[in-house]
Amino acid sequence: MNLNPENGIHLTYCSNIHPGETWADVRVQIGAHLPKVKSHISPDEPFGIGLRLSAVAAESLSEPAAMEEFKSFLAGENLYVFTINGFPYGEFHGRPVKENVYLPDWRDDERLAYSNRLADLLAELLPGDLDLEGSISTVPGAFKPEIRTDADVAAMVDNLIRHAAHLVALRERTGRTVTLELEPEPCCFIETIDEAVDFFGNHLFSADAIASMADRTGLSGAAAEAALRRHLGVCLDLCHAAVEYEDPEQALESLARAGIRIGKMQISAGLRFAAVDESTIELLRPFNDAVYLHQVVERNSAGLARYVDLPEAIAAVEKNNGDREWRVHFHVPIFLDNLGQFSTTQDFIREMLARQRAAPFTPHLEVETYTWDVLPPDYRNVDVDSAIVRELQWVRDQLGQ
Predict the structure, then answer these.
(1) In this model, does residue 227 exceed pLDDT 90?
(2) pLDDT confidence of 195, banded at 50, 70, 90?
(3) For 144-165, how does the pLDDT look when each residue is reduced to its tens digit (9 = 90+)?
(4) How many domains does the chain contain in total?
């Protein structure tokens, strides 16, 4: 929904909370859930969709008949698409995903082809308002352990520039602007704001990158740099940032100084344990599912320690005692704060939304609680549509809506 027609601030939730890998499955889920959510949160105004498409679903939606049917549905229900989650390429629900969620990564031409297709689809789906840009969130380069050489980094940079050139051509052809947003995440190639600033400054916005962009697009050097900065940015996931103990003010200032746009902010909460001992392990066992990675960042007297998944972190506690705080990458409903013996990172969301309310820094806001199906039953004692409505209303309340 358009929260502020003057500034063009749009709020939605990500449809990756609903299982579905083929377009037929996605279409059924959208038809079942989006109109219900809209009837509660935006009954009289258009409601935007944060669409998640696998590579298989994107290929099917590219078929003219499927596209026309979907457009007709959107028009009939007063819905519109303005952002796509292009992070998970393949299956995302019901079976182990873990670190495979990052594959293919940005070294691989398959990631480039998939992202190009998503951009083409989004340009066609965007509503008539030409001022409304589209955003696509994507993996933060790759899973960090997979990037071992300068050649790996160079391959990612080259494909990202090739994608930016595709977005330039798409803009020239359609008049629509679509942007790609790399999403920092713990244990990935880009996991912190400092790493994002470094990667953009030393690679994506470097003199070599500008020259490559100019060569691929025929733009002047200045225009090529402007195009890179227009089409490549970050998706600021608030769970990821809080788990990394980012400081809200410093994070926003660092990105602004580097000229990196925040094309999209995913509003999500993680778990927070102010102290960790054997009782913490027992509290966490229900969250240790076999489907997703749940990275843990520990703050202790020596600084920060990172664990790729909960079992690794639990094993470390069993071996070593000491004072420590844990933040865990497990998306929980954002309206939850105090969970009894532990809490969530909701305070971080509150602070970021307060800053967005005072001085908007991103046009696209997307609630993303994709872990609904693996959330322990005690924390999902309502139906999913009611939970989504409650999350969206909580955000609106924080924004003074």
Answers:
(1) yes
(2) very high
(3) 999 999 999 999 999 999 999 9
(4) 1
Answer yes or no: is 61 within a domain.
Answer: yes
* pTM of the shown model: 0.97
Asked, for residue 303, whether it belongs to a domain, the answer is no
Residue at 276 is within a domain: no
What sign results for the dihedral spanned by CA atoms 124, 366, 10, 261? negative
Residue 26, domain CATH: 3.20.20.150
Tell me if residue 238 falls in helix, strand or coil.
helix
- Angle among Cα 147, 215, 84 to the nearest 5 degrees reads 55
Looking at the domain assignment, is residue 9 inside a domain?
yes
CA-nearest of 97, 94, 83 to 53 is 83
Q: Are 365 and 357 in contact (CB under 8 A)?
A: no
d(CA 226, CA 233): 12
What is the torsion angle, in degrees rounded to the nearest 10, for the CA atoms of residue 321, residue 322, residue 323 and residue 329?
A: -50
| Domain range for 35 | 2-269+345-398
